[in-house]
Specification:
CATH class of one domain: Alpha Beta
Number of helices: 31
Number of strands: 22
CATH superfamily of one domain: P-loop containing nucleotide triphosphate hydrolases
Helix content: 40-55%
Strand order of the largest sheet: 5-6-4-7-8-3-9
Largest sheet: 7 strands, parallel
CATH topology of one domain: Rossmann fold
Strand content: 15-25%
């Protein structure tokens, strides 16, 4: 590998050899891109360790000056002064704080990152700057590329390696890391470790052990926002003693913070449309639901403002396309869930609009932090309405299970009646009707109690390539003779047309232990007689008899505690947005900083912005006001057992609820809403004798005749026409 100085790097040609340019965008397939990066690394490398941090900042990254705390933190790392925790606002240049030291140091910098998209984007950005020595290891890589990257890491060619915390649980990877010089261990988005992050991502709990296994290299924890409590928790969870704090001011004086209160009768989509006609520049619109993202984007596009959408349920190809078009400026408006927020680094975002309110001050401040990274004044606007606050709280409540759901998971595990259960949290979520995050928490607690043993992401499905006949292999491996005979007699192997196998099937057919089968396959593969290509991975759960005695009450209390804390966080944010005080000051104070002026001039309380504050909300004339509904509530006491439509309309009038929960509610299946006293309403379970299909068809008919309306966020509401129908329907009773 060739080495070049900074001045040489700047030249288009080095000697007679032209620097190979890597055209990133046409290489849509991530493995093609990584393969090309490996090729470039093997033929062209920049050794810039002799340059100063300032020279690297200017010549490689194109910045003239360091931001607050960057220079101090980089010097701290390079002088090997120990562990550090850095809190820097979104856009504050956290990544440079470890990227520059990594390029100067001889050894490896490991970067633990919570999101695949985040590590992919960071590596891509470095490669575009001709830094080919940064790689990632995650589930998107082929086994060939993964092996090659590990090999290059062992050989000392990799400077930065981005990994998910789950990847570090691999014994194979940890064995390699233990043999090489790890100069720096970085935890990006370190707030994921604190409070609830380690419950949701169990492997975060193992980071402290992993650091010790790597002979205690210096640790750098990075986050954009953190209260004093979170800072303390991060240090505790990582075991960071003698940790130096680097706290950059969180204040973003170029962000104009505005709150608009909307009545329930306001046509929110129309208000948003009028708002966008007033605003200029790139705009991110945050929503809470995937369905809302698509509907709002469609509404805007149909009314003259072209908008794309982004959410976690989209196909990867569509997500990449929509994100790329927004980042490159082909699209100016994107409607998205928080799945789009982390890792988005577009300097000229002029507007952040919260169509639905965020869930906490921390989330809100990170989201608005996407705006104005170039220092140019930018708008951060929240559209607030009372009924949506209720919906957010209902969503939080529904995320956390009670006793019945926890017991459902335990019953399912027991009912499988197998020594080893091949499954995934996503599958358990589906069969037990519980969100994936609580599933992970429950499994973690069951594992800690010793009632289950979990082996994460083991090989489940394989493609086999036989280089010898079964009889020849049996002869060559007498130690496996009886086991191989059993394996080769299974229906899976007897089928000559079949090349793809499920190891669980082989286990059931042979009664052999999974790990025994895996040992045999691995030995044959290593010896070159047998090749298998991994197709799918699942968790193995080994259920112990003691699971029947597991006490679920601590889990119930845990979920209740978290629910309460989450609801409190929502209230704190709402108070901040609503208070007749300087909003900028309130936000800064929350993070423990001081702001002395009484008037910031950059929020809707201190200085209402002309134009935004003057938009007149458009009233939905079809929507029935609360006072109109109150006048007909006596009609609800009249029973009409034969009329499904009447029952549905009465429910909509009594309670505002997203349509996705509507059918479950009328069938009495929303058990997790019990804390909101829904079970006490006469409408709960009033159609439990009807099928989902019949209820759905009736809802559709009611919407079609405009007795109820469905908003872009999926909420069903009674209309004025529905009021008239109710009066007519019950006037003779």
């Amino acid at each position: 590998m060739q080495e070049h100085t900074c001045d040489e790097i700047r030249k288009e040609n080095i000697g007679k050899k032209a620097v190979v340019e890597m055209d990133i965008e046409p290489l849509k397939d991530i493995n093609l891109r990584i393969s090309e990066q490996i090729r470039l690394l093997e033929h062209y490398s920049k050794d810039i360790s002799n340059l100063t941090p300032q020279q690297i900042l200017t010549s490689i990254f194109g910045y003239e000056h360091f931001k607050p705390q960057q220079d101090k933190l980089i010097k701290h790392i390079l002088k090997k002064k120990g562990n550090a925790l850095a809190v820097m606002p979104t856009g504050g240049g956290k990544s440079l704080c470890f990227q520059i030291p990594a390029l100067k140091q001889k050894g490896l910098t490991i970067v633990v990152s919570p999101l695949i998209a985040l590590m992919t984007d960071q590596v891509k950005g470095l490669v575009e700057k001709k830094i080919y020595s940064a790689f990632f290891i995650n589930s998107t890589l082929s086994e060939e590329n993964k092996s090659k990257i590990i090999q290059l890491t062992e050989q000392g060619f990799v400077k930065m390696l981005y990994v998910a915390p789950e990847s570090l649980s691999s014994d194979k990877i940890m064995d390699i890391f233990q043999k090489i010089n790890v100069e720096l261990f970085v935890i990006d988005e370190a707030h994921c470790i604190s409070a609830w992050g380690h419950d949701f991502r169990p492997d975060y709990l193992r980071l402290i052990q992993m650091i010790k296994q790597l002979h205690d290299p210096p640790v750098l924890a990075l986050t954009a926002t953190a209260t004093d409590k979170v800072k303390e928790d991060i240090q505790k969870q990582l075991g960071l003693k003698k940790c130096k704090l680097f706290i950059a001011p969180c204040d973003r004086p170029n962000l104009y913070i505005h709150t608009t209160e909307l009545e329930p009768s306001v046509n929110k989509e129309k208000f948003l449309l009028d708002l966008l006609k007033l605003l200029k520049g790139s705009t991110i619109i945050f929503v809470s639901y995937t369905k809302t993202a698509e509907k709002v984007a469609e509404y805007l596009t149909n009314n003259g403002i072209k908008a794309s959408f982004y959410h976690g349920q989209m196909e990867k190809e569509d997500k990449d396309k929509n994100q790329n078009e927004f980042m490159t400026g082909k699209e100016n408006v994107i409607v998205c869930t928080i799945a789009f927020g982390m890792g988005v680094d577009k300097k000229d975002i002029r507007n952040i609009i919260h169509f639905n309110v965020s869930h906490s001050i921390e989330n809100y401040y990170q989201e608005i932090g996407r705006a104005g990274r170039d220092g140019v004044p930018s708008n951060c606007i929240t559209l607030l309405s009372e009924h949506e606050i209720g919906k957010i709280k209902a969503l939080i409540t529904s995320d956390w299970p009670g006793k019945e759901k926890i017991n459902a998971i335990i019953r399912w595990l027991v009912d499988q009646n197998k020594k080893y259960i091949f499954t995934t949290p996503k599958f358990i979520k589906a069969v037990c009707d519980i969100n994936e995050i609580p599933v992970n928490v429950i499994l973690l607690r069951l594992e800690k109690a010793g009632t289950i043993k979990r082996y994460p992401k083991v090989i489940w499905g394989v493609k086999l390539i036989m280089k010898e006949t079964p009889s020849e292999l049996i002869k060559k491996y007498p130690q496996f003779k009886s086991d191989l005979e059993l394996i080769f007699k299974t229906p899976s192997f007897m089928n000559k047309q079949r090349k793809w196998f499920v190891l669980e099937d082989i286990m059931d057919q042979t009664k052999l232990d999974y790990f025994r089968i895996k040992e045999i396959f691995e030995q044959l593969r290593r010896d070159g007689f047998f090749q298998y290509i991994e197709e799918e991975r699942k968790d193995i759960i080994w259920v112990q008899k003691s699971i029947k005695n597991f006490d679920i009450q601590p889990l119930v209390d845990l979920f209740e505690k978290h629910r309460t804390e989450k609801l409190k966080k929502v209230d704190l944010l709402i108070d901040c947005l609503r208070n007749k005080k300087c909003k900028r000051k309130e936000l800064i104070l929350y993070f423990g900083e001081r702001y002395k002026p009484d008037n910031c001039g950059m929020c809707s309380h201190c200085k209402p912005k002309e134009g935004i504050s003057n938009i007149v909300p458009t009233i939905d004339k079809n929507y029935a006001a609360d006072e109109e509904i109150e006048k007909v509530k006596d009609l609800f006491k009249i029973k009409n057992e034969d009329n499904i439509k009447n029952k549905l309309i009465k429910l909509v009038a009594l309670y505002t609820i997203p349509s996705k929960d509507f059918i479950k509610l009328v069938r009495g299946e929303l058990h997790h809403f019990a804390s909101r006293r829904i079970k006490d309403l006469p409408c709960c379970g009033m159609l439990k004798g009807e099928t989902e299909e019949i209820i759905y068809e009736n809802i559709k008919e009611i919407v079609d005749v405009k007795w109820i309306s469905e908003s872009s966020d999926g909420t069903l509401r009674l209309t004025k026409k529905g009021i008239i129908y109710l009066k007519e329907s019950y006037k003779e009773k």
